[in-house]
Amino acid sequence: MTVTPLVSFEGVAKRFGEIAAVDGVSLDIAEGEFFALLGPSGCGKTTLMRMLAGFEAPDAGRIRLSGQDIAGLPPHRRPSSMMFQTYALFPHLNVEQNVGFGLKQQGWDKARAAARVEEMLRLVRLEGLNRRKPSQLSGGQKQRVALARALAVQPRILLLDEPLAALDRRLREETQLELKAIQRQLGMTFMIVTHDQDEAMVVADRIAVMREGQIAQIGAPREVYERPASRYVAEFLGEANLFPDGAGFRLVRPERMTISPTAAPDALAGEVTEIAYLGDRTRYVVRRAQGRPLLVSRANQGPPLAFAVGDKAWVSYPPDAAVALPS
Ligand SMILES: Nc1ncnc2c1ncn2[C@@H]1O[C@H](COP(=O)(O)OP(=O)(O)OP(=O)(O)O)[C@@H](O)[C@H]1O
Ligand SMILES: [Mg+2]
Known about the structure:
By secondary structure, the protein is an alpha+beta fold. 26% of the residues lie in helices and 32% in strands. The chain folds into two domains: 7-226, Rossmann fold (3-Layer(aba) Sandwich); 245-325, CATH 2.40.50.140. The chain has helices spanning 45-53, 95-99, 101-105, 110-123, 139-152, 169-186, 197-203, 221-226, 231-236; strands at residues 7-16, 19-29, 34-38, 60-65, 68-69, 80-83, 157-161, 189-194, 206-211, 214-219, 241-245, 248-252, 258-260, 268-277, 281-287, 294-299, 312-316, 323-325. The longest helix is centred in the middle third of the chain and has 18 residues, at 169-186. The two termini are 36 Å apart. The mean pLDDT is 94.
């Protein structure tokens, strides 16, 4: 049995003059999935999302929703709701008017709309702030109002373009977990755009890693991190030790490396040039006579290692830690 995906991009392309912003993207998003588009600035994430929302028309390819081509549908007739990086709240409307805006447009009956607004404010934990204006809210609260407004209209898919970029790190990390919890609770399909690999890994069921308008790899967070398909994906998703191997590379993640003050067969010898204590782990940089410096990440449990900068060190990894990369 094949299940029709909720969203399906098929060979989608979009140019702006000389720039191929999106260059032949095919991917499916399942109903109920939390899907992330991840990639560096300018790789085409927003453009791809805007084509799904209907703000931009593809030059080639098809976008289907539950199997139906949505090419001709204007944004307001698409069952998607987009939340932008700048929350774009209406400054003259208070919280409940902002959250209820789409419902009013859709002609919801007043009592039903009011109940829906209350439900949304509970969901994002903003009960009681109904009469505040956006200027009287913190950044995190504005972000919640925008989320409540986007969800109020019961979209089939919620599109989030860098929704947490304006929040400070701590609030951003908390909000990532909350977004994930809300998505799970509602059983809804979310698509998020981000250039932050940690954010993508925290929230998403699957990640599409983009490069220059194309998909470099799609997979679950663990898959793309532990089994990247290319050097580009390996390096974009975290720190990587890369050893030249034939035409390609062997990848070993720093947390798979072991550092020791004593020599061992097959261990790589070097000198410790950096030690960074990071709370949950310690990160070592070991310089070798030749080749790139080795990166080692060691969980801080049990007694600490007695390394100092300048010490000799031997670094090794188990054979199963190495992943072959074509390029
Ligand atoms: N309306 C436009 N006119 C001309 N060029 C555009 C337009 N919109 C996007 N581009 C270009 O298309 C490319 C992809 O842009 P896009 O906004 O999709 O990237 P992005 O991955 O979202 O980047 P960021 O992480 O910085 O938001 C960029 O080179 C950008 O300059
Ligand atoms: Mg963007």
